[in-house]
Write a structure and sequence with these properties.
The chain is α/β, with parallel strands linked by helices. The protein is 33% helix and 20% strand. It is globular, with a radius of gyration of 19 Å.
């Protein structure tokens, strides 16, 4: 664990540091731990020209695409090519130009090429990804940027760690800020040390309406409402106005959702 100066910033400050045109990796899984609080602020601040990369698609990528924040989205075209996409981040984290994969697969990710070994065997390789910024959502962190996750029930976060290690900068939103003592007393839960994190933001329910393991379930009603809105340009514009622009901040967003709705999906509240 590495101690450093405070990296705890507001949601607005974190998003304000994103330059237009940056290559941004979004972590999280399908309907799980997507960094939605940060991304709603990206929409509110009208960031433009972002080049989004990831190892899966989802509501988060789709929202930024439809809101006009993204100029390009590089994600797997099918679930079968997610492993190849993940390999690109692994190569980036390891400082390698390419990652060897068994086969490109249907809808292979960007720029897969064929390579030949000395025996004439053909393998497929995919180029590395080194994003300018990786955005993640996790359970907890201290003000210095040491990030905690309950990996015994959230093994999928290991993918997010690789995404973080491939990026030049890392922004993490967390359910709560905890004391350095809490971090020191939980070494098995430390997934990112302070020297790998640039900014940490406290954003309770920051993955909503997707789920955050061991904290809350996804809101099926809200997810269905998004799917309906995404079918029509005007419906999406209205959804964006009602669900993002009109809220003004993450705190107001949660306030408007109401405690009863949030409690209905909550499974655990403490770090």
């Amino acid at each position: 664990m590495t101690r450093s100066d405070t990296k705890h910033v507001s949601l607005e400050q974190a998003v304000g540091s994103l330059p237009d045109g940056a290559v941004v990796a979004l972590a999280g899984a399908a309907q799980t731990r997507q960094p939605m609080a940060i991304l709603r602020e990206v929409v509110r601040q009208k960031k433009r020209g972002l080049r989004l990369v990831g190892y899966r698609d989802g509501m988060d990528f789709d929202m930024l695409r439809r809101a006009g924040c993204a100029s390009d989205v590089d994600v797997p075209a099918s679930a079968g090519s997610e492993e190849a996409a993940q390999a690109r981040f692994e190569a980036g984290a390891a400082g390698l130009p390419y990652a060897i994969i068994g086969m490109a697969g249907e809808g292979a990710v960007t720029k897969a090429i064929a390579l030949h070994d000395a025996a004439g065997n053909t393998v497929m390789a995919v180029p590395k990804i080194n994003p300018d910024i990786a955005i993640l959502h996790a359970h907890a962190a201290d003000i210095h940027g040491n990030v905690l996750m309950d990996l015994e029930t959230c093994a999928g976060f290991a993918r997010d760690v690789i995404v973080a290690r491939s990026a030049a900068r890392v922004i993490v939103s967390v359910e709560q800020i905890v004391s350095p003592r809490t971090v020191a007393n939980a070494p098995a839960r430390l997934v990112l040390a302070a020297d790998t994190v640039d900014m940490v933001v406290e954003a309770p329910y920051g993955a909503y309406p997707t789920r955050c393991e061991r904290r809350y379930d996804g809101d099926d009603k809200a997810l269905a409402a998004y799917d309906d809105a995404a079918r029509n340009t005007e419906a999406f514009r209205q959804w964006l106005e009602d669900e993002v622009d009109a809220k003004g901040s993450h705190a107001l967003y949660l306030d408007r959702l109401g405690m009863e709705r949030l409690q209905a999906i909550t499974t655990r509240r403490s770090a």
